[in-house]
Amino acid sequence: MSSTGDASGLAVHTEGLTKRFGQQVAVDAIGMAVPRGAVYGFLGPNGSGKTTTIRMLLGLVEPSSGSRSLLGLPLPSGAGQALPRVGSLVEGPAFHPYLSGRSNLARLDAADPLADPRTAAGRIDAALDRVGLRAAAKKRYRAYSLGMRQRLAIAAALLAPRDLLVLDEPTNGLDPQGTREVRSLIGSLAAEGITVLVSSHLLAEVEQICSHLGVMREGRLVAQGTVAEVRGAGPMLVRVQTRQPEAAAAVLRELGVTQVVTTVGEVHGTPGDLEPEKIVSALVYAGVGVQGFTVAVTSLEDLFVSLTGEGFDVSG
Amino acid sequence: MSAVEVGSGTAVDAGVGAGSAIRPRRRWSTRFLRSELRLIAGRRRNQMGLLVLAAVPIIMAIAVKVSTPGPGEGPNFLSSITSNGLFVPLAALGVEIAMFLPLAMSMLSGDAVAGEANLGTLRYLLTVPVSRTRLLAVKYVSLCIGALWGVTAVALPGAVIGIALFGTGDLTTLSGSQISFGVAVWRVVLVMLYLAAGLAGLAAVGLFISTLTEQPIAASIALLIFTILSWILDSVPQLSWLHPWLIVHEWMSFGDLLRDPIAWANVLRGLFVDGVYALVFWLAAWARFSSKDITS
């Protein structure tokens, strides 16, 4: 389904990863493949199992069955080697409210057995700079706005050099300006060669920056691959504007176009593997006057809805 | 407890991964422990708690000073006790070990794991990553140091005001003999260490409870109930078979350290029980925490 290559080329790889909480299956046998260097959009409605999956990837939750590996190292045995190279943001920011933003980062850095205390101050400043929080570094965390909290959490993920960033809903609570900044930050991190796994329930937030997509629905990974591959999984549509819709419909059916629908002045259908050029030439050859011809790729939005279901209902 | 922060491995295996972010493993660091202690010490509530602990000996010293009859007027034993100010920290420790010091440990141990889970900071510590064993070890060592701070917060102000008000004469031991001020200071230090050891045993129970919930208040109250229940059971004569295994049973034996010579039997028995509690409950905390799904 996707250009996975061998397993060692994957930053994140799971096979049959499953988590049950009591009777409920939160994550159902998912096989995730995030190639190194990719920006992987992990999509799905709230409650579809994204966060549980991310918790399993980070070793916070033990899977009921299945295997997972990070940066080529199997978990849980390789966690001690893999996790220092992974920065994460899981289910929103969480810091000590009575410490300043800077002190909170210093605490996380102190907890890291691999962090060099001599470079701590510089790294903390750099991380704060990167998210534009340097000016508010000395404020207590409790005085931070939701957007500042979110930025601090991203700064924490950037405290040490990383090979992989796992960002769960990184734009939650950010205003449009902040959302754009996070998006460009992710873009620049990806440009440095860092693999990014970014989850969202809002397609629009991630579709511009992702190279790969994985779509969750009710605990299952219902689609995965490069953006083009996932788009390709959706049906293509051809529309023919003509004064002779019946004749056009006949030609289309003859060519093997399915779901042909005739309306006033227009015919549309699903061409499958058929090349659009052949349809046009066949129409012209049959003497059908073509006023207009469009090939519509299903929008990612439509696709997302078709994969995950409509509406605001929380699945699962 | 000194080996808790030893890094768990040697050099990073060169064969695994070729990523840019591999950092050399540092062998020894007390950074996390120091950060933990700063967190405890910096918290306003804990500072207030220390003030309350310190207030008790001060109140006691002033009350005794005000009510003590002048020389030659009162009963002989009272004036012999009050000839050395160190009776103040000892009496204050005796009063506070029953409830105030265990309450302080309840607050700290509630914060230890349940507090981090409640804030959500636990998941970020674990993904740093801090191994769960290391996290529990650092948390426990910091609780033990917290216990020392607690007894010091009682004994040090107590000693200062005691000496200021009553002087540095000979200390009358519980055996009736007199020991010099210099020897008495060491006896007070022994009492402090003995009581801190008892609180450290209790802290292991608190750490275990702290891994069971995400509500720090619930964990604190549970440990307080555990302490009160222990005192109640210890006072029921029909349960005398249980008494040697109650953590609080030998706490009051700290008085044996004020005999001349020191009567070690009950003190050693008390230290043994403290150690058993520390070991059993730390392992229980580990067993619980190392396999727990962190969903907070």
TrEMBL record, chain A:
Record's signal peptide: none
Annotated TM spans: none
InterPro entries: AAA+_ATPase, ABC_transporter-like_ATP-bd, ABC_transporter-like_CS, P-loop_NTPase
Residue ranges of domain ABC transporter in the record: 12-243
Domain of life (superkingdom): Bacteria
Pfam families the record matches: ABC_tran
UniProtKB keywords: ATP-binding, Nucleotide-binding, Transport
Gene Ontology terms, MF aspect: ATP binding; ATP hydrolysis activity
Record-stated family: Belongs to the ABC transporter superfamily.
PANTHER family to which the protein is assigned, alphabetical: ABC TRANSPORTER, ATP-BINDING PROTEIN
The protein's name in its UniProt record: ABC-2 type transport system ATP-binding protein
UniProtKB/TrEMBL annotation, chain B:
Top-rank taxon: Bacteria
Pfam family membership, one: ABC2_membrane_4
Segments passing through the bilayer: 48-66, 86-104, 140-166, 186-209, 221-242, 262-287
Keywords from the named record: Membrane, Transmembrane, Transmembrane helix
Keyword Membrane carried by entry: yes
Keyword check for Iron: no
Protein's name in the database: ABC-2 type transport system permease protein
Species per Swiss-Prot/TrEMBL record: Pedococcus cremeus
